[in-house]
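I'd like us to work through together how a protein chain folds, taking it slowly. To get us started, please write out a protein record for me. Go ahead whenever you are ready, and we will take it from there:
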Amino acid sequence: MVRANGAVSLRELARVVQTSEVTVRRDVRALEAEGLLDRRHGGAVLPGGFTRESGFPQKSHLATAEKTAIADLAAGLVDEGEAIVVGAGTTTQELARRLARVPGLTVVTNSLLVAQALAHANRVEVVMTGGTLRGSNYALVGSGAEQSLQGLRVSRAFLSGSGLTAERGLSTSNMLSASVDRALVQAAAEVVVLADHTKLGTDTMFQTVPTDLITRLVTDEPPPHDDRAVTELQALADQGVQIAVAGASGNPGGDQVPAGRRTSLPGPRRSHVPGASPLRSTTALPEPTPAERGRVADLRRR
């Protein structure tokens, strides 16, 4: 199986060469030491660092349980009557399906998939950016999308991407998508990144959100063998990112790396997840100015 980050899984390698995963893992480590490949989250890729972007059909079938769990947990961040921005992606699409139940919500998005998920929500207002349609991920990009976001101010931005590292933050493989995501970030008081464990430690070409601008990361529980993801979570927490980890079963799994791992997230830098309302913000957001209210009204009329 080829993963979202372009890696071939160790299980698939073992099947092809007709040997055990233990043997394959040992051989992969030896090849990595010689610089002949890179290990990636239970698999391997050819060396070269930056991964290429998969299309929507491929992404929509990857890590589906993990994306569901992440969306369930992230939805608890959103209160009634808020105005938020939601970027493009299969994980944010899952989030949008849950936001349909939040009354009085205003969602600004450049994603046709997010808008579709909210199209029949009677108590949610959807505001779409302008721009040029990028068919591979059903997102509006380009100068039209970026200009429509200028002067906008909302409480939170929910973004996904192709990779996340503590060194560079969130990144994606497409320049136009990265540019719009940066505009979404500029519109928000807080930035929430939704990224499953396969994206942790993966770096792609275009940076969208540097680590110091990421308020929270909502992710899933890495598998037991994935030391890279656990190490990356630790590094992100060390830089002040609040981290919430959801169980892959679809139920919120708490806010720390499971016991038994080599690292644990430092308490003061983790986000608290109460039972009924996970990840509620404890920081009062500034009231929008009259100019900002006017900008939202202008977008709604478009």
